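Why do we care about 3D structure at all? Because function follows from shape, and shape follows, mostly, from sequence. That is the central idea of this module. The next example makes it concrete: a single protein chain, its amino acid sequence, and then its structure expressed as tokens.
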Amino acid sequence: MKRAGSKSNSLNRPPRPLLIVISGPSGVGKDTVINRMKELGYPLEYITTVTTRPRRDKERNNVDYHFISRERFQEMIERQELLEWANVYGNWYGVPREPLKQALDRGQDVAVKVDIQGASSIKKILPQAVFIFLIPQSIEELASRLKQRHTESPVDLARRTETAEKEIKRLPRFDYMVVNRPGEADQAARAILAIITAEKCRVKPRKILL
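And the structure:
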């Protein structure tokens, strides 16, 4: 009877917390999809990336990104305050380690948004995370999105499009693919939330150790 009770208790344990890594090429709409996920109210802890990139119009400091100086970024590296970091198009981006660890320690599912380099780095450190590749409907459609942002020069636009073509070839390294079609961020967000729900039903749960 005790053995049966012990087994029952193990089945009643809450699912282990997940680390959801959302990545994809520049301009695919990662921010838009994540904002829609927040609006849908799924209980996720969203870790805000730090960056040395200048803030764009309509971006909010400490909400969209933590905008910091290059000196402060280097200091965070030296103090081992970042889980991973990378230079993307001349600017530095990194994922703060402590808020991520605190959320996982209290059993909270966590989502982080990173570029393809960042996803590769996290996979080496935390291979049991859930890696989701947000992909455009086509390269042509992605180029159109980048052009509509009015934040890149023609040279930068061509470079980002070329880089995206190379990044899409890394798709097999991810666990899931979600297509973000124009005007359908809601469907992409719901697809990611469905992935999280499915992961909670795994017979052998992922174990994130940080």
